[in-house]
Amino acid sequence: MKSFIVLALFVAVAIAAPATPDGDAQIVKYESDNIGVEGYSYSVDTSNGISQSENGVVKNPGTEGEALEVRGEYSYPGPDGVVYRVRYIANELGFQPEGDHLPKAV
After folding, report:
1. Residue 79: inside a domain, yes or no?
2. Whole domain around residue 47: which residue ranges?
3. Signal sequence span per UniProt (predicted)?
4. Strand pairing partners for 51?
5. What is the pLDDT of residues 52-100, one digit of tens each?
6. Exposed/middle/buried for residue 25 (C-beta within 10 Å: 0-12, 13-18, 19+)
7. Exposed e or buried b for every residue in 67-99, given b needs 16+ CB within 10 A?
8. Given 49, 56, 66, 104, which residue has the most CB atoms within 10 angstroms?
9. Can you tell me the distance from the alpha carbon of 69 to that of 89, in angstroms, rounded to the nearest whole number?
10. How would residue 104 be classed by pLDDT, with cut points 50, 70 and 90?
11. Predicted TM-score of the model (pTM)
């Protein structure tokens, strides 16, 4: 389940972020803390202005209600010059994104 959520988030970022014209973006900052026990965190910045950070924690460890909760955000410059930012939570209630450019839930 945890792997699926992380994979889904990477796919969402890859789809949302526009490709660079030259395709030569470089990672300019990468930090990771993943000891694999009860949580993880990472952040990445690239030379084309894309940025992502995320942390995950295990809620209710060792119980039947054990679940991974992931919180993070990513941003990217759009073709219109605006930097789009998405903040999200992913947990047992699903993926819950927020952003000024996204429709608001009613």
Report:
1. yes
2. 2-98
3. 1-16
4. 45, 75
5. 999 999 998 889 988 889 999 999 999 999 999 999 999 989 999 999 9
6. middle
7. bbbbbbbbbbbeeeeeebebebebbeeeeebeb
8. 56
9. 7
10. confident
11. 0.71
Q: What is the pLDDT of residue 62?
A: 87
Q: How far apart are CA 79 and CA 18, in angstroms?
A: 8
Integer Cα distance of 94 and 78 in angstroms: 26
103 occurs within a structural domain: no
Q: What is the DSSP string of 28-94?
A: EEEEEE--SSSEEEEEEEETTS-EEEEEEEEESTTSTT-EEEEEEEEEEE-TTSPEEEEEEEEETTE
Asked if the structure places residue 23 within a domain, the reply is: yes
